[in-house]
Structure formats: structure tokens, C-alpha cells
Amino acid sequence: MSAPVAIDVKGLSVGYGDYVLLHDADYQVNKGDIFIIMGGSGCGKSSMLRVLTGLLPPLKGEVIINGVDMINGKVDDIQKIREKSGILYQSGALFSSMTLAENIMLPMQQYSDYSAATMRELAGLKLALVGLKGFDDFYPSEISGGMKKRAGLARALALDPDIVYFDEPSAGLDPISSHNLDELIIELNRSLGTTIVVVTHELASIFAIGNNSIFLDAASKTILARGNPKELLKNPPNKEVYEFLTRGEKK
Amino acid sequence: MRISQINNPVEVLSKGGVVYVALSGDILTYNSESALKKIADIVQKSGQQIKFMPDGLGSWDSSLILLIYEAVRIAKDKGVETDLSKLPKNLQDLVKMAFEVDRKPEHKSATGGGFLETVGRIVVNLCSVISNFFNFLGAVTLGIGRFLSFRSIMRRIDFCAALDDCGPKALAIVSLISFLVGLILAFVGAVQLQIFGAQIYVASLVTVGMCRIMGAIMVGIIMAGRTGSAYAATIGTMQVNEELDALQTMGLSQIDFLVMPRLLALILAMPILTMLADFMGMLGGGFVGVFIMGLPYQEYWKFAINAFTLNNFLVGIFHGFCFGIIIAMCGCYSGLTCGRNADSVGVATTSSVVNAIVWMIVITGIITVICQEIGV
Predict the structure, then answer these.
(1) Is the distance from CB of B61 to CB of B28 less than 8 angstroms?
(2) SS3 for A54?
(3) Rounded distance between C-alpha atoms, residue A180 and residue A147, angstroms
(4) Fewest CB within 10 A of the end CB: N or C in chain A?
(5) Chain A residues within 8 A of B238 when measuring between CB atoms
């Protein structure tokens, strides 16, 4: 029996004004998947993520997350789904005027009834979870790029989300930091059962963490392939996917 | 043809319907305009083929590639053959690559178009700006409603930080500028009043001027440049760093979180700063009157107090209150509508100051007319 569906995307078109980046996309993300949205630059990966996270309205189509229509559903239902979603942005997007602990406590203050002391404890715990134990009172400007991403992830995990979205998690990281972040993603998925959606074009990360994926193509503005990235490499459905997964090797 | 006959690095010669383009020596940052014109003229008249002769070609850069690319393009347009076979292999490859680049823009250019299209675009943009601003105004009004009904998520620490920034930290600059404005006002007034022997009225002039309008306007201009621009830059940078996206996806209201603390801080600080500016301006006028014009201190004080009316004072304070709202709104609006690059932050900062000053002048005009009508 297959796992229940966490995200169901139907006939989704993504773009800005008259400019269509991607049309009629259909795919499903199962609960507990590490789902990769991959493709070359300009194919609409990040825009797809913006649609999934509600930052960009789609041109048409449906996004259903845990049974809730995120485009036309009730505002309260949508809000509940958002509360149970975490996002790690490319830059970490930490609030620079707050310490790391305050950053993590912010969503808790909004959506929970924890006391200040409990929130503080939880913030420390989340930081420890991403390997930043003891950095509670540091400001974002006082830590490295890789640490910012980890802190951003700790904030994304603040409310124990069902789904965590990652926008280019490896961008700007050295290979070791990138590998460590991949390990962390796998660990989170394994230990917490969190559904993870990752937008990336880093092949090493794609093969290391992904167990399901879609491949977006800028030329045809469609999904050209779907499935486990390792399987796609073994049996590429077309030359675009093969070239992408082999760093430009001609078939 | 012998290369020894050639003096220029690029020489264009015609013989038997063939255009020879002889390349010699170093061709670096070469301006190919005249050579291309000559090639085009010969091809137009009698050319059947263009041949490149690179004997003795030394160092070269992109200007040579551009020359060959343009020459080949001219030949193609006129249906004339080109012979690149004698060129070095790498140069041939680069020219080939230049033709492979797709120079057609993917999107329709935003510029150009007919008059009606331009007017249409301006009107659509204007409508969009007006609609965005009214949306923002509505959102801020709702934010104030949430604040008054204790449902706002505004953090007290953010309000205190904003108040500290636009209150105590602005005291020095507001004091200095207001003192100098009072001083200038007194000097200018004194020159005219001395003609009539009425220099003692400098005290009245400075008091009325500063308390009714000048104090508030000077504070407004200082705070628009100092604080309003800082709001736009801070919020704009948050946009660039995806912090606003993070707020939105966390379901936190940008109005409650970013706008309300700044708006309330300025609403509170501006009337107090206006009072300070009034006082410092009067002090500056007094400095000129007493120490430079030699007016008796008691006389100056008496005339100043006589000129000071509650109406004038309250009108000034009301101006300060309105300016506080305008500066905070313009700064926050520019920041929230900022683009996602460094250049946009600069544009947002500039527009916040310009818009604030323009709106302050407009509001001053409106308040002045209303005061005139109701006799205040």
C-alpha cells in the first residue's frame, strides 16, 4: 500500500503576468518523502516552491496539501497548514535584529501558548538539533553562511512541521557543509518522519537525499520526468534528463 | 597582394570582384567602423567574395572577432561568399560561436511602442501604484484597529527600539538644525525690520514662524531624511534577504510586525520633537536678537511671549503629528514594495524621502487653508 499523499498538485501553471514558466504540472508528494524539484536554471523551480508556500499565486491549477485546497480553501484551514509547514530559504532569511533563539521563538510566540522559559528551552533544543548548541544569543551577522542555514532550519522546525521546504539548500556552501546539511535533512526525515521538499540542481545532493523527484524543463515548460533520481539516472526517459543528471554528457 | 604594402592593421582592398581584408600586426581594441564601411561599399558595388588574409597577424582581441562577425553579416545580407579558411582555427571557432548566440530577446521589450501604448502603460502603472497604496493604507488602518483592540502581534521591544531611534537619538540633530533655522530667520527678518526701526519684532517673527510651521517642517525634513529613509532601507533589505517572505510564510502580519512599531514611535516622537524645535528656534532667534543686534534680553523675551499663542503652538504640534504619520507610511511603504536587488533598496530609500517631503508640503497646504477658513 502506498503512503498517503501530502501534496497533490493538479494542472498547475506557474508564471508572472503573461509570462508562463511552467504549464499544466501534475505531481504528488507522499508523506515521508524527500521530494526533489530539479531542473536547469530558469525552469521555474523556485517559482514552483513559491507557489507551494503561498508566496506566489498560480496562473491556474490546484495545490492540495494534507487535503486542504491551498488556493481556494478556507483561510483558517490554509493557515493551519501553513503553521505546520517550515521553510528554509536560500539565504536563511533570519531576522537580523534578533538573536538565533529569538528567531526560533518568534513562530512559537505567535502560534503556541508556551511560557517564555519553555520557548527558550525549545529554541535551545532546536538549535542543538541542527548542531548549533550554545549559539542561542548569537546574532545572524556573527555566524557563517552554513550556520545561518542551519539556524534557518531550526526556525523552520520550530513548530514541529509536517512538511519542510528547502530552497537551494546547498547554494553558497562548501562541499563539506553541503554534505553535512544533506545528512541533517536525511536525519530529520528519518527521525521525525517529516515530508521534505527540496528545490535544487546540485547533483550530489539530489542523489544523496532524494527518493522521489520531478524534472522541470525550461524549453518545453513542462515536467519531463518523475521518479527516484537514481532510477532516472539508470533509465533516463529522455536526453534532457540524462544530460542534466550526468552533467552534460551527450547520450 | 603583398603584406609589405599594408600600413594599417586592417586593410581593405578590392581586386577582380574579391574583397581582401588583410590583417597584420596586433589588432587590439581596434575601432572597425571605417573598415566595415569600406567593406560594405565595395561589396555593394562589385564584390562577389570576401577573403580574410591573416598573414602576419599578431595579438588580437574581441574587436577583431567583432570586425569579422560584422563583415560576414554584411556579406550574408548581400548574398556574397566569405572565405575564413585562412584565419587561425581558434578565431574561426569564435566567429562561429558568435553566430550561434541567439540575439533575439526572449521577452518583448518594455520600451518603445506607439504613443497610445506608452500612455496606456503609464496609466496601468499609475492605477497599480494607487491601488497598492490604498491597499497599504487599508492594511495599516486594520493594523491600528488590531492594536487598539489588543490583538496586534507588535513586539514591544521593536516599538522601544524604533522610539529610541526616532526620539532620543534624533534630539541632537533636531536641536542643532532648529537653532540654526531660528538664527537664520532672525537674521533675515532683522535686515528688513531694521529699515523701519522695528528690530524688536524679530522676537515675534521668529516665535510665530517657528511655532506655527517652521519647527514642524524642519523636524519633518530631518526625520524624513534620517528616519524615513532608514525605514525604507531596513525593510527593503529584509525584502532582498527574503525576510519578508519568511514573515509571510510564518503567517505573521508585516503591518503588525514592521509598520506598527515604526508608525507609533513616530506619531509619539514627532510632536515632542516639534516642541523641542520650536524652543530651539526661539533660542536661535534670541541669540541673534540679544547678542548680535544688541536688543535687551527682557524686551526680547516679552515680545516673544506676547507673540506665542496656544493656537499657533497647537497648529505646529498637529503638523508634527501628521508629518509623523506621513514619514512612517512613506518609509514603510517604499520598503515593503522594494524589489529584490541592491539597486531597488537605493530607489526605495530615495522615493521614501521624496514622497514624504512632497506629501508633507501637500498636507501643510491643506492644513493652512483649513486653518484660514476656520480662523485659527
Answers:
(1) yes
(2) coil
(3) 11
(4) N
(5) 95-96
pLDDT tens readout for residues A218-236: 999 999 999 999 999 999 9
Domain ranges of chain A: 5-245
Shortest CA distance to B10 belongs to which of B90, B65, B82?
B65
Reading the block at residue A135, the C-alpha cell is: 549559539
pLDDT over 90 (residue B110): no
- Round to whole Å and give the CA distance between A49 and A55: 8
DSSP B290: I
d(CA B19, CA B38): 10
* Residue A199 contacts residue A37 (beta carbons within 8 Å): yes
Grid cell 504549464 in the structure block, residue:
A23
| Amino acid at residue number A80 | K
Q: What is the 3-state secondary structure of A146-186?
A: HHHHHHHHHHHCCCCCCEEEEECCCCCCCHHHHHHHHHHHH
Q: How many CB atoms lie within 10 A of CB A14?
A: 25
Kindly state the cell numbers that stand for B70: 560584422
* Contact call for residues A230 and A53 (beta carbons, < 8 A): no
- For residue B4, name the pLDDT band (cuts at 50, 70, 90): very low
Residues of B in contact with A91 (CB under 8 A): 241-242
d(CA B49, CA B75): 8
Instruction: Determine whether the interchain pair B243/A97 forms a contact, defined as Cβ–Cβ distance below 8 Å.
Output: no
- Predicted confidence at residue B44, as pLDDT, reads 84
* Residue type at A179 in one-letter notation: H
Nine cell digits for residue B290: 540679544
Q: Does B110 touch chain A (CB under 8 A)?
A: no
Q: B363: part of which helix (H) or strand (E)?
A: helix B342-374
In this prediction the ipTM stands at: 0.86
How many angstroms separate the CA atoms of B288 and B276, rounded?
19
User: Is 1.10.260.40 the CATH number for A5-245?
Assistant: no
Q: State the best of A56, A65, A80, A91 to mutate against chain B, taking most chain B CBs within 10 Å.
A: A91
Distance CA(B263)–CA(B223), nearest Å, equals: 13
Identify each DSSP E strand in chain B by its residue range.
10-15, 18-23, 25-27, 49-53, 57-60, 81-83
Q: Is A203 buried (19+), middle (13-18) or exposed (0-12) by CB count in 10 A?
A: middle
Q: CA-CA distance, B30 to B27, in Å (whole number)? A: 6
Half-sphere exposure of B311 (CA within 13 A, CB side): 8
* DSSP element (H, E) containing A101: helix A100-111
Q: Contact A55/B251, CB-based, under 8 Å?
A: no
Among residues A69, A67, A51, the alpha carbon closest in space to that of A59 is found at A51
Query: What residue ranges do the domains of chain B occupy?
Result: 3-100, 115-152, 153-374
**pLDDT confidence tier of residue B5, bands split at 50, 70 and 90:** very low
Contacts of A96 in chain B (CB under 8 A): 238, 241, 243
Domain with residues B3-100, CATH architecture: 2-Layer Sandwich (3.30)
**Alpha carbon distances (Å) from B356 to A77, B181, B330, B345:** 40, 21, 6, 16
Compute the distance between CA of residue B109 and CA of residue B111 in angstroms, rounded to an integer. 5
- Which residue in B321, B318, B322, B290 sits closest to B304, CA to CA? B290
Question: A60 pairs with which residues across the strands?
Answer: A13
